[in-house]
Amino acid sequence: MLTHDKYDDDLRVAAAMSLVNMRPRAGRQVGIDKLLDGLSVLSPAERLKIVSGMTPILIEGMKLSRPAAAKGDDSATTDPSIPAKDAAFAMLNNEGTHLVEDAASQKALKETMVTWAMTAFTARMDDSTQKYGMEQVLRFLGAQGTKGLPKLIVPDGSKLQAISGLIAELGDQQTKEEASKNLVNVAKDIESAAWTKRVTPKLQKANAQSKIKVKESQFKKQLTRYRQEELMRVFRSMKKVGGAPAVAHLLSYGLDKNQPEQRRAEALNALEGHLDRKNSKQLASILNLAGADDTPDLVRSLALRRVGEMPRKAVINRLYALFRNKNWKIRWVAAELVLKMSESKHMDEFMGQLGKTKGIALSEPLRYGQLLADLKGSPKPEVLVSRFSDPKYPAPARLSAFGYYYYHGNKTQLSKVTPYRRDRQRIPKCGANAKDCEWNCTVGKTTRSVSTVGDFVSYCVIPTMEQREKPKVVVAAATKGKKKK
Predict the structure, then answer these.
(1) Pair (353, 398) in one structural domain
(2) Distance of CA 122 to the CA centre of its chain
(3) Cβ neighbours of residue 11 under 8 Å, at least 6 residues apart?
């Protein structure tokens, strides 16, 4: 009936809507497929009349309310609006023939689809009876489809990370800023007394239903863990969305010494890619945090990662200043970051700063030497290593050069290091109270103390090189163009 012009237009529209509302067969919604096939074969003029007649009916269908779920079981609720939504989406998004060519109809259907998505969002996001899921619909609608999503970012709201991900992917700048602001409000709520008052009875009820008896002190720990889990979810959502409000909140949280170390670290982790490379205040804050003596190691590590996202020129002097820190682990992380930000042309500068070190740990030259292999530019790492092995350089620089061979050298290169086996240059070791700063290497079953550059070469580098064969170069046989004999 839909495809034959001998029937009145009203009957053909009714036939089309019958296909929209056809019950699934073997789990497949074949009615909409038949609708698309039928509309595709019509002439543009015929199709325009049918689609124009369907449009107001589809709009009213998408406005149908989802029935309230019984006892919170939303999965058992049938949403009467889904057939109309699926049909509208399929017609608008059809590959090949444009089925909805009238601009006014397109606009009306899309606007109604946006409203549909924002109504009962969580239930419709999870509804598996749809032919086309919520995310598919929103991606089709693009920025227009995300305009209402920030309003769903509220305390105790659900699907926070999914909503944030869609906004980050599809939203325009205004939508992202609104979402960023609302995420900050949710984060602040989680740490409020109001949140504690709301959550306490829910947690107590959950314990009772699970027949778990806890003391007051244990319950407080439960509440703290739950608060942290909720806060981490918000931080992860902030990481997706970004925006000035979220960045300001995360940075402030990471700087706050009164907050637990793990939460501060998560806040700094969520700042990945969001700090303003031209904002001098943000840069100063993160550098000061990285260099402060009382900054916990985990927090410092994340702070330095954020520093690593900044322009080298803007941070290099502050990073070199950390080389003078009494805690060798701070220099270790800072120096590793410097190497990752540098090229071969910067190595005179780097080795010069490293050479001023008063005490160095065994882990340092091994790691620095390993990273030398990744340097870009000229001269090549092998040339740099040969240069800085020379006795005219300070021990920390030479040790780092030999550290290259520890990770990348093989037995065919032993001649490059064996001349230094008896080198008596002393290693500037850490102070007496330094942790994890012992200089020992194992040769066979014997652990040897390392005090000089020669000891490092003999007991650490050479035994490792002797166990490593020269990498084999595999040359593929050229067969193309050869004649068989």
Answers:
(1) yes
(2) 24
(3) 1
Tell me the torsion sign for CA atoms 453, 458, 459, 462: positive
Residue range of the domain that includes 162:
142-274
| Cβ atoms of residues 108 and 59 within 8 Å | yes
Query: How far is the first Cα of the chain from the last one, in angstroms, to the nearest whole number?
Result: 70
pLDDT tens figures, 193-205: 999 999 999 999 9
Question: Which residues touch 213 (CB under 8 Å, ≥6 apart)?
Answer: 207
At 447, is the secondary structure helix, strand, or coil? strand
User: Is residue 443 helix, strand or coil?
Assistant: strand
Whole-angstrom Cα distance, residue 214 to residue 221? Answer: 10
307 within domain boundaries: no
Residue 276 has pLDDT above 70, yes or no: yes
pLDDT, tens only, 213-234: 989 999 999 999 999 999 999 9
Are 463 and 443 in contact, with CB atoms under 8 Å apart?
Answer: yes
pLDDT tens figures, 103-144? 999 999 999 999 999 999 999 999 999 999 999 999 999 999
Do 85 and 176 share a domain, yes or no? no
What pLDDT, in 10s, does the model give residues 59-87? 999 999 988 765 555 555 689 999 999 99
**Omega before 44 cis (within 30°)?**
no
Give the model's confidence band at 56: pLDDT under 50 very low, under 70 low, under 90 confident, else very high: very high
Q: Using alpha carbons only, how large is the chain's radius of gyration in Å? A: 33
Q: Output the CA–CA distances (angstroms, integers) from residue 427 to 186, 205, 272, 330, 381, in the order listed.
A: 53, 63, 37, 19, 23
pLDDT at residue 162 above 60? yes
Paired tokens of 365:
């030259």
Q: Are residues 127 and 234 located together in one domain of the fold?
A: no
C-beta of residue 230 within 8 angstroms of C-beta of residue 222: no
- Using DSSP, state whether 173 is helix, strand or coil: helix
**Alpha carbon distance 424, 34 (integer Å):** 87
Amino acid found at 59: I
Give pTM, 2 decimals. Answer: 0.83
Distance from C-alpha of 55 to C-alpha of 406, rounded to nearest angstrom:
72
Q: How many domains does the chain have?
A: 3
C-beta of residue 310 within 8 angstroms of C-beta of residue 280: no
CA-based nearest residue to 242, from 169, 192, 297, 334: 169
Residue that is last in its domain, among 140, 166, 196 = 140
Q: What is the mean pLDDT of the chain?
A: 92
Q: Residue 405: pLDDT above 80?
A: yes
Q: Are residues 88 and 160 in the same domain?
A: no
Which amino acid, residue 451?
S
Q: What is the mean pLDDT of residues 316-344?
A: 94
